[in-house]
Automatic annotation (TrEMBL):
GO biological process: carbohydrate metabolic process
Molecular function via GO: transferase activity
UniProt keyword terms in alphabetical order: Transferase
Domain of life: Bacteria
Name of the protein in question: Glycosyl transferase family 1
Organism in which the protein naturally occurs: Enterococcus alcedinis
Length: 554
C-alpha cells in the first residue's frame, strides 16, 4: 500500500474521531492470506499521535503483506468484569458478538470482535444446542491464553487480573485495504463488519460473490470428484462427515453457477463429481437403483438423495446436451414411484438398509426436492410417465395444504410445474407458500439463504401469474400488485442481507487460521462459522437465481 493511500486513510478516519474519548485507539490488522492476521493497537492522547505510531509501524513491515485493516474506536462503554460477563451472557446467538473488548489496568489487552469470534475466545455452554436455546457465552480460558501468547508473545497464567481491571466494550469505524483498493466497512448490531454494499455497487458485488463463491465451491472438489465436505474455520478443522444429498445438491448449484459464468472447466469438474457420485453413492438393493447414505455407519436410503441425484444430472444435461445420465434419471424416478410413493400419493422419506420404512417423514425438503427434480427430468426426456408422477405429487401437496411449510423447494417445484400445466389452485398454493411468511423473512436478522431461494422462485411464479388468463380468479388486481411488489421488495432486501451476513469476505476471513481456504465462501455464524458445501450451495443458488431474474434471464 502506497503512502498516498495511507494519507487518504488518515483523512477518512479523522472524520470519525470521537472527541469525548480520552484516548484515541487505532488498531492495525495485517497479514498474508496463508495465515491468521496479526493485530496491533496504538494509543494516543490525540488521533494524530496514534496515527504517527501506526504509520511508523506500518513503514517497518515487509512489502509482501496481502491486506490491511485499520479500526478506529468510536464508541466505548466502561464496565466491571462482572458486568462484562452479564453483557456476554445476554448475547442471543453464538458468535453474534456486537462489540470488542478493551482492558486497562495492570495489563493492556484489546480484542476486536472479529478476534473474539475467530479465535473462539467466547464459547457457548455445554448445554447449548444450535437453534434450540441461548448460548450462555463464557470465556474459554484456554483459548484466551493461547491467543494472548500469539498476539502479545507473553504467557498468561491467569485471567484473575481482569477482575481488578477497567473494562471497555467498544465499536469501531474501519477501512480495509487490498491490492491498493480501499473499502469502507460498515458494522451492524449482530457482529458483522464488512464492506459497504449499497444500491450503486450492489450488482458489482453480487457478480463478484457469484464468481468467487462458485470458484470456492469448485475448490472443494478434489481430482476424483469428491468434495471436501466443509470446515470449521477458527482452527481450519475439516468436517469429516459426508452426505449424498449435499454431494448432489452442491453439484446442482455448481452447474447453475457454471451456466451463469459460462465456465467450461467448472462444468467438467462438476461432471467428475457426478460420475464419482453415481459410482460411489449408488447401489442396487433388491432390484432397486438407490442412492445410499449413512447414519452413524448404517446405510439408509432417502427420498431427498434420489431427488438430488436426478436434479444434478438433469442440470448437467440441460446445459451440455450430454444425455449419458438419461437412464440413471429414469431409473431413479421409477424407484421413487415404486417404493418412496404410496398408492395414496404419500411420500416415504427414509428406508433402512433392508428397505424397511425407517421414517415416514423426516424433513419437508424431501417432498419439494422430489417434485422439482422429476419435473426437470421430464422437461428433458418428455416421458409422460414421469409427468404423471409429478402430477400425483402436486395434487397431493395442494390437497393437504403443504403451503403451510413455506419451503423453498416447494416454491421451486410449483414454479417449475406451472411451465407445463397452469391451474388456479397451483398459483394459489404458490402464493400462500411465499406470502404467509414474508414478514418473518423480512425481519430475520441472521443469514438464511433458503429464504432468498424461496423468494426468487416465488418471483418467477408471480411473473407467470401476471400474464395468466385466469389471474383474477386467483387474486384481485389490487392484491396482485401488492403481492408482486412485496415479494420483490423482500427478495431484494434478502439478497443484500445474505451477502453482508453470510459471505466470507477477505476483511473477515483474515482473522481465521487459513484465510486462503475460506475467502468468498459462505458460513453459518451461529454454528461455529460452519462452512459446509451445502452452505455454499444455498447461497450460490439464491444469488444466481436472483441475478438472472433481475437481469431478465428467467
Amino acid at each position: 500500500m502506497g503512502k498516498v493511500a495511507f494519507n487518504q486513510l488518515f483523512s477518512n478516519l479523522e472524520t470519525y474521531v470521537n472527541p469525548a474519548l480520552k484516548t484515541t485507539v487505532l488498531v492495525l490488522s495485517y497479514g498474508q492470506n496463508k495465515a491468521r492476521c496479526q493485530v496491533k493497537e496504538f494509543y494516543g492522547r490525540t488521533f494524530e499521535k496514534s496515527w504517527e505510531q501506526l504509520f511508523a509501524f506500518y513503514r517497518s513491515l515487509p512489502s509482501n503483506i496481502a491486506y490491511y485493516r485499520i479500526d478506529l474506536i468510536t464508541e466505548e462503554q466502561t464496565l466491571s468484569f462482572e458486568e462484562l460477563l452479564e453483557s456476554i451472557d445476554e448475547v442471543k446467538r453464538n458468535n453474534y458478538i456486537p462489540f470488542g473488548i478493551r482492558v486497562e489496568g495492570f495489563k493492556k489487552r484489546l480484542f476486536l470482535k472479529e478476534e473474539l469470534v475467530a479465535n473462539a475466545i467466547l464459547i457457548p455452554s455445554k448445554e447449548h444446542i444450535v437453534g434450540k436455546n441461548r448460548p450462555q457465552l463464557q470465556f474459554s480460558e484456554k483459548n484466551f491464553k493461547n491467543y494472548i501468547k500469539r498476539k502479545y508473545n507473553v504467557e498468561e497464567y491467569t485471567m484473575n487480573y481482569l477482575l481488578k481491571s477497567t473494562i471497555h466494550t467498544f465499536k469501531t469505524q474501519a477501512f480495509f485495504i487490498e491490492n491498493d483498493t480501499t473499502y469502507e466497512l460498515l458494522s451492524d448490531d449482530i457482529g458483522n463488519q464488512v464492506r459497504v454494499i449499497e444500491e450503486t455497487n450492489f450488482q458489482e458485488n453480487l457478480d463478484l460473490v457469484i464468481e468467487r463463491g462458485a470458484n470456492y465451491l469448485l475448490d472443494q472438489l478434489d481430482e476424483t470428484g469428491k468434495f471436501i465436505y466443509g470446515y470449521f474455520p477458527c482452527y481450519d478443522s475439516q468436517i469429516n462427515n459426508y452426505n449424498s444429498i449435499r454431494h448432489f445438491s452442491s453439484l446442482y448449484a455448481l452447474f447453475e453457477a457454471a451456466e451463469f459464468l459460462a465456465d467450461k472447466k467448472m462444468i467438467q469438474s462438476g461432471l467428475e463429481g457426478l460420475l464419482w457420485g453415481f459410482e460411489h453413492l449408488s447401489e442396487v438393493n433388491q432390484g432397486e437403483f438407490l442412492i445410499k447414505d449413512f447414519d452413524k455407519g448404517v446405510i439408509e436410503y432417502k427420498l431427498g438423495a434420489q431427488a438430488m441425484a436426478i436434479l444434478a444430472a438433469a442440470k448437467y444435461t440441460q446445459i451440455t446436451g450430454d444425455t449419458q445420465f438419461f437412464e440413471n434419471m429414469k431409473t431413479l424416478t421409477h424407484t421413487i414411484e415404486k417404493i418412496f410413493l404410496t398408492k395414496e400419493n404419500e411420500t416415504i422419506h427414509v428406508f433402512d438398509e433392508n428397505l424397511k420404512i425407517k421414517e415416514q417423514f423426516r424433513i419437508i425438503y424431501y417432498d419439494g426436492e422430489a417434485l422439482f427434480s422429476m419435473l426437470r427430468a421430464y422437461e428433458l426426456m418428455k416421458d409422460e410417465e414421469i409427468f404423471a408422477i409429478c402430477k400425483r405429487l402436486m395434487s397431493h401437496f395442494v390437497k393437504h395444504n403443504y403451503e403451510k411449510y413455506n419451503d423453498h423447494w416447494l416454491s421451486y417445484a410449483v414454479n417449475e410445474f406451472l411451465k407445463h400445466e397452469e391451474q388456479d389452485e397451483y398459483y394459489k398454493f404458490g402464493l400462500k407458500n411465499a406470502l404467509n411468511r414474508l414478514n418473518f423473512i423480512e425481519k430475520r436478522d441472521t443469514a438464511y439463504p433458503t429464504m432468498l431461494e424461496l423468494l426468487t422462485a416465488a418471483a418467477k411464479m408471480i411473473l407467470k401469474l401476471e400474464v395468466y388468463d385466469n389471474r383474477q380468479k386467483v387474486i384481485s388486481d389490487a392484491d396482485f400488485q401488492d403481492a408482486k411488489n412485496r415479494i420483490f421488495e423482500v427478495m431484494e432486501h434478502r439478497a443484500h442481507h445474505e451477502m453482508v451476513t453470510g459471505v466470507m469476505f477477505p476483511e473477515f476471513a483474515m482473522y481465521f487460521k487459513a484465510p486462503y481456504k475460506i475467502e468468498y465462501g459462505f458460513f453459518a455464524r451461529h454454528d461455529r462459522f460452519r462452512m459446509r458445501i451445502d452452505d455454499a450451495e444455498h447461497f450460490l443458488s439464491g444469488f444466481v437465481n436472483f441475478r438472472m431474474l433481475m437481469n431478465g434471464s428467467e
